[in-house]
């Protein structure tokens, strides 16, 4: 995707051929800074500190993290250590474990002296595969938006999304936002309601940033506005991403997604979840089994923003003596999901629906 006319991915091979470069998402939307990852520890920090975030991008970064680790120690013990370090960074997104399993399967049969080249090659393949999967998600999901545009006789289609599931959450294109980009590029009139997504404000800082960079009309709203918008008939459909989807169709996504799904169900608004195959956890049959990450309470009690003089500062917004809980995700049951938008097509949110696409 483009920023000021220049195409970017969210992660790419460094010019030296032995490092990886990322966009530091903790600095957006106020600054575009590129960070170079040269070691396993730097890759793990990028994931845990949310310099990179979004389930597919976490997986891609973990793949490069393994490649960086192989430069230091290409033995079986080095490979196992790299996977342990990276797996411990974020517990909810299944793409992380999927990418590590892919790297292990590719590298274990190779002799140690071939593992560095093999790891960088496989990491690049994982990135390219993610881009293609997201492009196809966009193609399949665009049809849903087109159908609404036809029913509305060309009037603007209003879409509500939660958190960031655009190209910043993947290697390129995105999941939930990919259909919107495809529809916009085709000339369909679309408008996006962007939930701010407390406590880290990924909607206000990231989704709004990339939609604006692409020229897509959008409006930032407080997280609790979605139900009112649906009651007022101002939302045609909801599209969100997912960090882990169980075999029966339950979905773990950013905290607050469940409430949007409930409001959508109550108001007859379609609620779609966009995902690549790497986000499906076939080992779980119930969303209640998904581990829910709990992050530092300071993300709730403090907020970062830009002052009138341009400085970026973090300030407290709660009484110092008050405790805070920071659950990063919630689970939306399959019964509240209209359907899944995948790289293989649109399907019901159920075991049967997923099995139709992924035998």
UniProtKB/TrEMBL annotation:
Signal sequence bounds: none
Domain of life from the UniProt record: Bacteria
The keyword Amino-acid biosynthesis belongs to this UniProt entry's keyword annotation: yes
Pathway listed: Amino-acid biosynthesis; L-methionine biosynthesis via salvage pathway; L-methionine from S-methyl-5-thio-alpha-D-ribose 1-phosphate: step 1/6
Annotated site (Transition state stabilizer): 163
Enzyme class at the top of the EC tree: isomerase
List of catalytic residues: 243
EC number: 5.3.1.23
Catalytic activity: 5-(methylsulfanyl)-alpha-D-ribose 1-phosphate = 5-(methylsulfanyl)-D-ribulose 1-phosphate; 5-deoxy-alpha-D-ribose 1-phosphate = 5-deoxy-D-ribulose 1-phosphate
Residues that coordinate or bind substrate: 53-55, 90, 202, 253-254
Keywords noted in UniProt: Amino-acid biosynthesis, Isomerase, Methionine biosynthesis
GO molecular function: S-methyl-5-thioribose-1-phosphate isomerase activity
UniProt GO BP: L-methionine salvage from methylthioadenosine
Family: Belongs to the EIF-2B alpha/beta/delta subunits family. MtnA subfamily.
Record's function text: Catalyzes the interconversion of methylthioribose-1-phosphate (MTR-1-P) into methylthioribulose-1-phosphate (MTRu-1-P). Also catalyzes the interconversion of 5-deoxyribose 1-phosphate and 5-deoxyribulose 1-phosphate. Part of a bifunctional DHAP-shunt salvage pathway for SAM by-products.
Protein name: Methylthioribose-1-phosphate isomerase
Originating organism: Methyloceanibacter caenitepidi
Lineage, broadest ranks: Bacteria, Pseudomonadati, Pseudomonadota, Alphaproteobacteria, Hyphomicrobiales
